[in-house]
Structures are given as C-alpha cells and as structure tokens.
Amino acid sequence: MQRAPLLLVPLLLLACGPSDGIVGIEPLGAAASNPAAFFDDFATDTGRWEDSTPVPGASVRFAAAEPTASDGKVLRLVLPGQQGLAGQDFVGPDSATQLSTLQRFHFGTYRTRMAFGSCATNEEAVMAFLGYFSDGRDADGDGLTDDLEIDIQVACGTPRRAYLTVFTDDEPTPGRERFQKSGRVVDFETGERFDTQAIDSDRFFSAGVEADALISEAFEPGQPFELGFEWHAESIRFFLQLQGAERDLWTLTGAERIPQLPVHIMYNTWHPDSHWYPDSSAADYPSTDVVTSVDWVSFTPE
C-alpha cells in the first residue's frame, strides 16, 4: 500500500497503517453456524490446515523441536532470508509463508501462544495471527468487496510494537484503494497508542499513553507470549496475557466496524517494501531467516 508523508500536526499523524495481510479470494470452506471448540498444539499435522510457501526456501513445519513450548514442539513458519535481495523482491502477502485452517469459525475467543522473529532495522517482515475470509462478494451491500480480517501483526524491524487491524471491506482499484477498516498501534516501549481517524482513512491520531501498554518485555524476539482476541457481533477485544493476567490492548465497538461472517484462523509472515507507522522509509528484504513459532492455538465459541 502506498504510504503518505508524515503530517506534523499536534495529535494528528498521517501514515499508512497496517495493511491487508491477505491478497486474493479464499475458497468458501466449511462454516458451521455454531462451530465447536478447536485446539491444536501442532505436535503433528492433523490435516485441518492448508499451507503456502511461495518463496524458494520457505517452510511450514509441524512438530519442530522447541524447549520453551508447553510440549517441546511448535509450528515453525520460516520466511527465508536471502543476501543481496532488493526491497522490491518478494513483496506482499502473495509471497507469504502461511498456514490457514480449512474450517471457518465465528464469534468467540481466539487464543494462541507464539513467538515472533527479528531482523535488522533496515529490513522488514510482518508476522501475524489473524482471522480472515473473502469470497469476492459484497454480502453487506455497501458497494465494496467484503474483506473480513482481524489482525494482530508484529514487524520484525520494530518488534516492540503491535499493529491491531480490523477490516470489513477492501477493494483495490487503479490509482486508489477503497476500504473500510479500523486500526490501533501500541508501542510497548513508551506506552503510546495511536488509532485510525476514520473507517476509510489511514490517518492515525494519538490516543495517549496508558500504563498497561507500557510493557518493556512484550514481544521480545524468540520469547513466547499468549495473545488473542475476543470477537462478538458488536465488539472485538484484543489482549495480551502476562503473568497469569490479561492486559487489554484495544476494544473496538460498533457492529458496522465488526466482521459478521465466519473466518479462517491463519498465521503468516511476509515482506513489505516499506516500514510501518510511524516510519515510512523503504525496507529491505531480510538477509536472515525470519521465524515465527506457534506453541498452540485455541478457539472457544461464545
């Protein structure tokens, strides 16, 4: 997505926020009206997932050995590092190392325990835990293609920030992308929070500093953390679990801002050609592997 320049106005900042983490149309998939609870510790490939590894050398591996995991095994997604590649090489979610459930799930609580990778500050890759669905239709009749996405994303160049994004529509058109989304950026080093200004805007404004968002240890590369979101028809609450207690990161309310159809549970890692808010500079392709590790995932219906 094209980034706009930074606008230096008090309390109003302009930049491209977290972008759509998926490109293309997903198959309809199975979607129970009241899906049962779901759990996977990735100790074996249960056949409930579909993977994608378009970059040469990329891999999705079940039951990879990991001493910090609850059972000593994790799912490991690798976006392969390559020396000498330019920032425009393997750009975007079409080149993501990705895993997606075949089943779709609806309202409820989605939790995972995972660890994010790192890279040099001049490089970039985005690692995500998300719910996603698009069949190319406009089910809500608003004139835009539905793009249902609930994202928790971390960029390897700045791993102490969380990018939380909720899409309901996304329709790229020549010269202009039309979308409806809401987003928040949480900087765990400073406790600062930034929210999008409007549902059709990439503008961010300061939402202030919050003591609960000042978490210096959050998303330390390679260290596992429990995180997730609680999704209802009129709200989504994002959270991070620390020392046995949940820390609320953001609660989005209003049914018009909330996806209403079931989604696939997904993990992916991909390279953007520029850094994310508040930096808009060009980003190189990672020179070393960017590794995302997942201990387990669970879904509990509401």
Characterization of the model:
Strand 12 and strand 13 form a beta hairpin. The protein starts with 11 loop residues before the first strand and ends with a strand. The chain contains no helices and 19 strands. Strands 1, 2, 4, 7, 9, 10, 11, 12, 13, 14 and 18 form an 11-stranded mixed sheet that branches. Strands 3, 5, 6, 8, 15, 16, 17 and 19 form an 8-stranded antiparallel sheet that branches. Helices cover 0% and strands 47% of the residues. The chain has a single domain (12-19, 37-301), classed as Jelly Rolls, CATH 2.60.120.
For the residues shown, what is the average pLDDT? 88
Query: Please, how many helices?
Result: 0
Q: Decide which structural class fits the backbone.
A: mainly beta
Rg calc? 18 Å
SSE order, as H and E?
Answer: EEEEEEEEEEEEEEEEEEE
Number of strands: 19
